[in-house]
Specification:
about 45% helix, mainly alpha, 3 helices
Length: about 90
């Protein structure tokens, strides 16, 4: 699911919950990362309901892990392996 500018906080939370087991799956990791970023934009400092609470600052380490995973395992990220250039004559 791609979040858009009309997505709500509930949409972002649903997407995050649907992709909690992102390890080993780049697509799920991207969706989870997108959801966490949206939650950080749409949120207050935290959410508390009757039997649940979320402190969004705790998500930061998980977001970092997901971003690192996507970066190192995606096949569509442009990675140049050049370390030096040599002019051809």
């Amino acid at each position: 699911m791609a979040l858009t500018s009309s997505s709500t906080l509930d949409d972002a939370i649903d997407q995050a919950m649907n992709n909690l087991a992102w390890e080993g799956n780049v697509t799920k990791a991207r969706d989870y990362l997108e959801a966490c970023r949206a939650i950080r934009i749409l949120r207050a400092q935290g959410i508390t309901t009757t039997n649940q609470s979320i402190n969004f600052e705790q998500l930061l380490s998980d977001v970092k892990r997901a971003a690192d995973y996507v970066e190192s395992n995606s096949t569509d990220i442009n990675r140049a392996a050049f370390t030096r250039g040599v002019m051809l004559r």
